[in-house]
Amino acid sequence: MMTWTVAVLVCFLSLPNDAPTLCMPAIIPIKFTNQQECEVAKERFISYFHPIATERNLHMSFKCAFGDPKDTLYAPQETLYDGHITGRSQRLSSS
Questions:
Q1: Is 5 helix (H, G, I), strand (E, B) or coil?
Q2: pLDDT digits 0-9 by tens, 32-54
Q3: Which of 9, 13, 17, 37 could make an S-S bridge to 32, C-beta 3.0–4.6 Å?
Q4: How many domains does the chain have?
């Protein structure tokens, strides 16, 4: 049975300017039977991680993925950038 899950990409922005951007993909290990349940949970995760991302200078991208989420980890829909939600056009920066 194919299920929905929340895929996350976490990038550390507090590295020195000459260091490469360090990003790690992850999956939140909760399965959903439909996209609506996944989207509601995704919004809750974004709200929960907002202060953590702000405090730790993280870039976090969240996306609901159907089937194998590994195929979608690098194309997030909602982005938490320096503690702010942005669109997918936001570029990563370590400056």
A1: strand
A2: 999 999 999 999 999 999 898 88
A3: 37
A4: 1
Residue 10 DSSP SS3? strand
Place of tokens 């996944």: 38
Query: Does any domain span residue 44?
Result: yes
Check residue 70 and give its pLDDT.
55
Task: Quote the CA–CA distance of 73 and 51 in Å, as a whole number.
Answer: 22
Range of the domain at 26: 4-79
pTM, full prediction: 0.67
- Asked whether residue 51 is domain-assigned, the answer is yes
* Nearest by Cα to 9 from 53, 54, 55: 53
Q: What is the mean pLDDT of the chain?
A: 75
**Tokens, residue 9:** 């990409």
Q: Is the pLDDT of residue 3 over 80?
A: yes
Residue 59 lies in a domain: yes
Q: Residue 25 falls within a domain, yes or no? A: yes
